[in-house]
Design goal:
458 residues; alpha/beta; Alkaline Phosphatase, subunit A; 2 domains; nine-stranded mixed sheet; four-stranded antiparallel sheet
């Protein structure tokens, strides 16, 4: 009997309200399969959602409490780390191999990709040079795939993967890498990450007129993948991690904490950095979720009161609240807050933009103590941004060090976000799968794992 093979396409930001005339390929797939809205993992962010789909557990068990968190022993925040060892518990491929040890798996740009026990993997991984430079690159499993795939497809378009130039090019390259992997290795299960909608919906808002064109663009990419896989006898599943909803209110919790004297601020060459290990309380922000760490336990009631009375804060979770939603893990903050539907949390802690750290005006996903969607924008105050960027690129190419300080500090530019659970299920992520076991119009995020196992096993 021929082996059953499956491709799982993660179309970030896709929800049921997007199925229709602007997404004909996705619509056709939905019409001949089962479709369910997914009550999103909390927080509804990339790393937490993917970990729940892969393990069938909530963050309280798998440990991925957000895209980043504070390590109390290191006294450092850890954002967008890539080791699969951070995700605790058996993963999808472990379950599939219990009955069929020979099962092969490709993980293509899903997060926590490095050192996962999969057969083939491709993930973005810059090379950080000793002189402070950064060279864009990818990491692969096995390692020799890196030069092979770059030789066939060209360099991964890293600047289109995140930052002001983000666009369809990165999703196109990932889709081509999925086809390349299928042609070269024919894995039993392929996990493919297509991030395009994430960028435009956060930048412009999900209701912006141009989003219809972006939906059509990602639908073409998905349609080509569906046709390709099905022509090779591979069944296709489509899912997403969260839906993106409009926002208009950035909330600067760290600034409020600073005004109360709870932050420790260090002067570094005329700019300010957050000295987290010496703070009485501070915030690690991630979209519409924020983890509140309170090293000084004597002020936790005062911190809670401030949060309860802060406009834009929708819900404050203490120990009992974290347990209720599955966030009671040692990595979580002492308190966890979720924003009101039209609000989101920044990491900003400085009160004077002239004192902002140098990384604030750059694309720097690791150094910032929180997620920063403002990295999607070029500072509108720059008169000739293309000329300025060209000059900086030239300096870099001739070996001179330069800072790409072109990101604004205006959080009001951001028009879309995610992280909480939207009230309307049409804004929830979705699952399209060849299964009659989805259990109704909506399922939980942990149910997605069960469905993926069932679909892959047949």
């Amino acid at each position: 009997m021929a082996r059953l093979r499956t491709a799982i396409l993660n179309v970030v930001g896709l929800s049921q309200r997007h199925l229709g005339e602007h997404t004909p390929n996705l619509q056709r797939l939905a019409e001949r399969n089962a479709v369910a809205a997914v009550a999103p993992t909390l927080p509804a962010v990339t790393c937490s959602a993917q970990a729940t789909y892969l393990t069938g557990e909530l963050p309280s068990k798998h440990g991925i409490v957000a895209n980043g968190w504070y390590d109390r022993e290191l006294a450092e925040h850890l954002f967008w780390k890539q080791s699969n060892h951070l995700m605790q518990g058996p993963k999808l491929w472990d379950i599939l191999r219990r009955d069929r040890p020979e099962t092969t798996v490709a993980q293509l740009f899903w997060w926590f990709n490095m050192y996962a026990d999969v057969n083939f993997a491709i993930t973005p991984r810059p090379l950080y040079l000793a002189d402070g430079g950064k060279h864009f690159d990818i990491h692969t499993t096995p390692l020799d795939l890196r030069e092979m795939i770059k030789g066939d497809l060209g360099e991964f378009p890293f600047r289109q993967f995140w930052g002001p130039a983000s666009g369809i090019e990165s999703s196109l390259w990932i889709a081509k890498s999925a086809q390349w992997t299928e042609e070269k290795r024919s894995p039993d299960c392929s996990l493919v990450y297509l991030p395009h909608l994430d960028y435009c919906m956060m930048k412009l808002g999900p209701d912006h007129a141009s989003i219809l064109n972006e939906l059509a663009a990602i639908d073409r990419v998905v349609g080509e993948l569906i046709d390709f896989y099905e022509s090779r006898g591979v069944q296709v599943v489509v899912l997403s991690e969260y839906g993106i909803t409009p926002v208009s209110r950035p909330v600067h919790l760290n600034r409020l904490f600073r005004e109360r004297g709870w932050l420790s601020i260090k002067d570094e060459l005329g700019t300010e950095t957050l000295d987290k290990g010496a703070c009485r309380a501070f915030v690690i922000a991630d979209h519409q979720c924020a983890h509140i760490y309170v090293p000084d336990a004597s002020i936790i009631s005062e911190v809670r009161t401030l949060l309860d009375n802060t406009p834009g804060v929708g819900e404050v979770l203490d120990a009992a609240g974290k347990a209720r939603v599955g966030l009671d893990h040692p990595r979580s903050g002492d308190l966890v807050v979720f924003a009101e539907p039209d609000a989101w949390f920044t990491y900003y802690y400085w009160l004077d933009d002239a004192r902002a750290p140098d990384f604030a005006r750059t694309v720097d996903i690791h150094r910032k103590p929180g997620f920063d969607p403002v990295e999607l924008f070029i500072d509108p105050a720059i008169v000739f941004p293309k000329l300025k960027l060209a000059g900086k690129l030239l300096r870099k190419k001739i070996g001179l060090r330069t800072l790409f300080d072109v990101i604004p500090l205006d959080a009001s530019l951001v028009k879309g976000s995610h992280g909480h659970r939207p009230l309307d299920p049409l804004d929830w992520p979705l699952l399209i799968a060849p299964s009659n076991r989805l259990g109704g119009a909506s399922i939980t995020a942990t149910d997605v794992h069960r469905c993926l196992v069932e679909v892959c096993q047949g």
